[in-house]
Amino acid sequence: MPVTNAVSAARTILTRLHDVMASRSHAQAKLNTVVEVIGEGLDSEVCSVYLLREGMLELFATRGLAQEAVHVTRMAIGEGLVGTIAQDNETLNLAEATAHPDFSYRPETGEEKYHSFAGVPIVRRERAVGVLCVQHADPRRYEEIEIEALQTVAMVLSELISNAGLVDDEEVVLSPQQTGQVRLDGLTLVKGLAAGNAVYHQPRITIEHVMAEDRDAELQRVYLAFDKMREQIDRMASQAEFGVGGEHEEVLETYKMFAYDEGWSRRIIEAIDSGLTAEAAIERVQQRTRMRMRQIDDPLLADRMHDLEDLSNRLLRIVSGQIGTAASMGLRSDTILIARNLGPAELLEYDKRRLKGVVLEEGSLTAHVVIVARAMGVPVLGRVRGLRGTVREGDPLLLDADKGEVVVRPNEALIEAFDARFAKTKERAAAYAALRDVEPFTRDGTRITVLMNAGLRDDMPNLALAGADGVGLFRTEFQFLVSATLPARERQTRLYRDVLDAAGDKPVVFRTVDIGGDKVLPYLRHNDGEVEENPAMGWRALRVALERDGLLKVQARALLEAAAGRTLHVMFPMVAEPWEFDAAKALFEGQLAFLKRQKKVLPEAVRYGAMLEVPALAEMLDVLVPRLSFLSIGTNDLTQFLFAADRAHPKLAERYDWLSPAIMRFLKRVQQAVVGHDVDVTVCGEMGGRRLEALALLGIGIRRLSITPAGVGPIKELIRKVDLDEITQAMNQWLAAPPPSLREALAEWARDRGIEAD
Ligand code: PEP
Ligand code: MG
């Protein structure tokens, strides 16, 4: 088979196949012609097509083998060379077929005179539906270009076969990893149980047409798609859409490298030259890379493979015009979303009523997407390895974020066991709901204030449902994140007014916009387009607000107007030095004076507070506290700075414990610095919503918690079982002489007193 040019060989074959496909003959007759065309085109003595029928690979057409064997020779999946190709979905290229351990001789075919053998899977929707193979009398290995021509032809063949209805689209070869029940472990990011069907955040593209009608038009489409994709990648890099450094930056670098890789685009163009559509060409090149990469056993390369796969899918989406995420296509009910990672804004696009859970390949506990999910009451499992290789679109899933696992395609027994647990959790939820109107007093009679965190109008009904004392942290930037453009003042005013109305006489603490870090607004280049090396410690929150004070002025006006006649609680994020608090307060006071001159109805009172998230501020509390009405400790940011551990970094997600003596000692010092002042101290980070952490906080003197709504019930229940003197004493001892694990010590303490605290 002296093929010197795979492209022209494939093109010649494809042109002829095009005619065959267009002809009006019967499917079997078409297939008979097809093997002749391919055999001739590749100058091969034998060319055979095996197709999947009733679970077996059946010889459907052949040139060169005995015709009596057609529809007689049948191989099981995994049996012989043909069965192995289908099972592994991989190419075989053998100089001496009989030397292969899987070779199985079929006398009826008369194949004994042929020595060399090359076969490729015929793939439909990522799965093998048949095998195309060529054989030669001379023992020789086929050239790579010959194999490529064969693979291209196999791709076209899959369309022909499917159009002719020769194989049932549902009848496919799948490995147990793709069909059976599989349990995948991950890291619990938001607790909870969910059952539903897998939906990919970025759906895979189905390629309808493989053979091109007009080569130039296809080339044009792919050139345009490349331009668009490169533009997107460049924009991503400049906006650091991927969030914070580390792994994400590496990904972005790899993306850029692939996006501009000449070799990749050239191979796609060659595939179009051979007669494929732009979509098929991209997929074809992707298949080839996949096959090559599979032979290399290197986890780093496997990661790169994912990147290229992502990029290839992005290119496919652009070229096919199927650009939306699953959110824009509308969800079915009971969806469990699958993604590599998500931004908070992307998650907020989903319909909360239908989204039951999220499973991510990456993710970390305090990333904002996780905070959003927690606020939405959606369980999230992160750091799940092998997720995208195992789960297929539509697969039934049982997500058990409590245990840190997801079961893919569960069997009946498991579904039953899961249902039983589900019922139990519902019972528990009902028990918490019963606590809704019960005030959280400790056993010794101290009233603890339990507030909730919120960020959207939709969160407000939770206030009554959970029975919280108010909103201790309203993250105003969420409105900015879900909006395509900067929200105008009127829109902001309306939201804040609605929120206050919904809260009735319960207080709401509005935090001024905290953008930057992993909360990136696509429409706001807050950093003059420069990529920040370390955005969490960069140009964010109050730092942006004080320099670009237009944004803060608009927000101040909106908040002051919305609170007309009521008390406004406003708090500033990321205060690092007392003057920053003063400057922000002065800006509000300026707006207040303006409204006064305009004779507008003013708030009855304005109470100003600061967030303690930057450790340096803890050293200045003697200066700052007298100027405050309240202080709120944002432990999510605070702990990332105390441990110098990026809160969104997947590799650090499990490294440090909130229940470390270092953090607890620090928080205790802060708490004590405020004693004697008429200033409320609240902990509003995620840790306050976890029982053991809440217990520890009570033990160091914290009496106000602002937590995720789902935590209100469980934390109230805990409070009612705690004796403050007892836990204070225990914490004092542990902090003076730390045990090997504070977490374990607390857990044991709770267990001994019959307090459920996991
Ligand atoms: C925090 O940092 O603890 C906090 C509550 O703010 P955010 O999580 O929005 O940064
Ligand atoms: Mg913060």
Report the oligomer.
Answer: single chain
Tell me, rounded to a whole number, the average pLDDT. Answer: 86
Main sheet strand line-up: 7-14-13-9-10-11-12-8
Kindly estimate the percentage of residues that lie in beta strands according to DSSP: 15-25%
Radius of gyration: 32 Å
Query: So how many helices?
Result: 29
The set of bound ligands, ions and cofactors reads: phosphoenolpyruvate, magnesium ion
Q: Can you describe this structure?
A:
This protein is of the alpha/beta class. The protein folds into three domains: 3-163, Beta-Lactamase (2-Layer Sandwich), CATH 3.30.450; 182-417, Enzyme I, Chain A, domain 2; 438-523 and 554-752, TIM Barrel (Alpha-Beta Barrel), CATH 3.20.20.60. It is built from 29 helices and 22 strands. An eight-stranded mixed sheet has the order 7-14-13-9-10-11-12-8. The protein has an eight-stranded parallel sheet with strand order 21-20-19-18-17-16-15-22. Strand 15 (449-454), helix 16 (461-466) and strand 16 (471-475) form a beta-alpha-beta unit. Helix 6 (215-239) runs antiparallel to helix 8 (262-273) and helix 7 (247-259) packs across helix 10. The longest helix has 25 residues, at 215-239. Phosphoenolpyruvate (PEP) binds next to strand 16 and helix 24.
Which features does this protein show?
22 strands; Beta-Lactamase; 29 helices; TIM Barrel; binds magnesium ion; 3 domains; 758 residues; 45% helix; binds phosphoenolpyruvate; alpha/beta
